[in-house]
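Help wanted!
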Amino acid sequence: MASTRIREARESDCGDIMRMIRELAEFEKLSHQVKISEEGSLVVGYGLYYFIYSTWTGRNVYLEDIYVTPQYRGQGIGTKIIKKVAEVALNKGCSQFRLAVLDWNKKAVNLYKFLGAQDLTESEGWLSFRFEGEAMRELAGR
Amino acid sequence: MASTRIREARESDCGDIMRMIRELAEFEKLSHQVKISEEGSLVVGYGLYYFIYSTWTGRNVYLEDIYVTPQYRGQGIGTKIIKKVAEVALNKGCSQFRLAVLDWNKKAVNLYKFLGAQDLTESEGWLSFRFEGEAMRELAGR
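Answered by r_m:
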């Protein structure tokens, strides 16, 4: 395993993080959805060769994304990130954390299962819905 | 449609909100998962006869739950809540909001679709994963 240190992201990581968001979106075949605002959304995060940005809501944590730059893969960095999240989550009094994964991303799916995650879509039937763009504006009466 | 006012939750709503969390968990057949801590997790919320608690993470919003007390259903209150969320989300500069729904909850699924939401599990293959309890503690080395 590489000698890696998991740390919170700093403002000076923003350039790298933006690059990784674009790389990840390309991997997920969702590049058309990347619209990064100036303010960014990475207040809470961990960075270096990878990042996550997460949201803490009482007892739940949502991991938005976990991404490892291709040349640093296969070194257990993803696992290290998830372990760190578990540690931070427990420290914050959270009882669980959730993340979303694309069904064809078998490597990620298998890793999460190996680490003890439960596939809630399979076991409980949870579906993920999104409102955006025109639908949101219409709802808001704009 | 009932004369309802959508407003943010106050501390004095906590009792009602706790009750609704339990009712919702019962409806979702997930009562065994309800463990409410003293501190609660409802800093951001809207309440009255219903509640949501949401998390703002830059450009995404996650709606944790939408719940309407049974005797107030069928009056468009769920729709009103979603419209309010769209409005608040746009005001905050968010470009989308997401929510999770159980596949057998056809009434909710149909409402979200009617209001313009996209089923991401169906259209893009997003699965929802959860780490909790023993798996979390093991990851954190405790």
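OP: Thanks! One thing I noticed: Residues 11-139 of chain A form a domain with the Aminopeptidase fold (CATH 3.40.630.30).
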